[in-house]
């Protein structure tokens, strides 16, 4: 078994924090749209407006911004100006970190369906309607997600991953598929509150914690899918993912997540999926190493990333991809741009 050092952050729980059930006599909306926010003022307005455009009314939908003690703007004022009393606001007394803030979101959620929409992401028209329809048709589902697109800082679409299914419904063989690698994003995923109550909240790391959660849900519940791009996930150079990649913490955290995911799999499938997911992320890490090299011009960091790729997997194809990396880098230094190499 591979040995990786786990990054330590006292604000990150070491086991799934419990989510307390609501009292049986509570008056509850169908939806809780919880918007965790921290220093994302450039995008928060877009997130809130995208939800308000699909507002189902106070009896059906709770909308709340949960501010992790932002310092960039007065978030309460922004929420008040946009929501006009419709959007609730809660501020953490101190910065608790993303994972604990998600936990607060879930505990404050009163609805049956909980959507954690990050303050820099957004939803497209039809998201809540389509999710509601599939939950109604599939009451056994613990979660439902839509297809999504990645967008840049300007809100322009970068790419759309392959579809998970051609038609809406419960996904087949979802547990081994989602265990291979992260196939969706927070913005696209909606979870029944009762599933969080049974399984607990996010834990372990602040990178890949969502992937482990989606695997955990798939272990115990059917998961539904809508094959329409109805959510947009924003990539940013100053995101947690980018920062961990730049500082060399991404792969150790990733490996911890992969090891945790193993416990959710049938014993007979663990070895095969472990090897496949290591190889997949070794490829991804080589791509990330090249991006870091281009962005930061830090050859030592890129070399470290590549060494981590070999710790993930020593499959011959990984060595082949590494050789392409070196060749592409040196050709580019000579002014030869092989973008399709």
Description:
This protein is α/β, with parallel strands linked by helices. The chain folds into 2 domains: 31-234, Alpha-Beta Complex (Spore Coat Polysaccharide Biosynthesis Protein SpsA, Chain A), CATH 3.90.550.10; 266-333. It contains 12 helices and 10 strands. The radius of gyration is 20 Å and the shape is globular. The relative contact order is 0.13. The model is unreliable at 1-7 (pLDDT under 50).
Keywords:
disordered N terminus; single chain; alpha/beta; 16% strand; Spore Coat Polysaccharide Biosynthesis Protein SpsA, Chain A; 341 residues
Question: Brief description of this entry?
Answer:
By secondary structure, the chain is α/β, with parallel strands linked by helices. It has twelve helices and ten strands.
Number of strands: 10
Shape: globular
Task: Tell me, rounded to a whole number, the average pLDDT.
Answer: 90
CATH topology of the largest domain, by name, is Spore Coat Polysaccharide Biosynthesis Protein SpsA, Chain A
Instruction: Determine the strand fraction and express it as a percent band.
Output: 15-25%
Task: Please give the CATH class of the largest domain.
Answer: Alpha Beta
Number of domains: 2
What is the helix fraction of residues, given as a range?
40-55%
Q: Helices and strands, in N-to-C order?
A: EHEHEHEEHEEEHEHHEHHHHH
Give the low-pLDDT segments: 1-7
State the major sheet: 10 strands, mixed
Helix-and-strand structural type = alpha/beta
State the separation between the terminal residues, measured CA to CA. Answer: 34 Å
CATH architecture of the largest domain: Alpha-Beta Complex
CATH superfamily of the largest domain: Spore Coat Polysaccharide Biosynthesis Protein SpsA, Chain A
Number of helices: 12
Alpha carbon gyration radius? 20 Å
Protein name: Glycosyltransferase
Domain Glycosyltransferase 2-like: 32-155
InterPro entries: Glyco_trans_2-like, Glycosyltransf_2, Nucleotide-diphossugar_trans
Organism: Hymenobacter telluris
